[in-house]
Amino acid sequence: MSDVMYGPAVRKNDGRKRKTYLIAFIDDATRVIPYAAFAHSENTAAFMEVLKQAVLRRGIPMRLFVDNGSAFRSQHLSLVCAKLGITLIHARPYHAAAKGKIERWFRTVRLQFLPMLSEKHMLNLKAINRALWTYIETEYHRSPHRSLCETPLDRWARVGEKVRYPEPGDDLDDLFLFESKRKVQKDRTVSLNGMAYEIDASLVGETVTLRYNPSEQGKEIKVCHNGRFVQKAKLVDTYANCFVKRDRPSKTIEALDPEKAVDHKRKA
Question: What is the pTM of this model?
Answer without folding.
Answer: 0.82
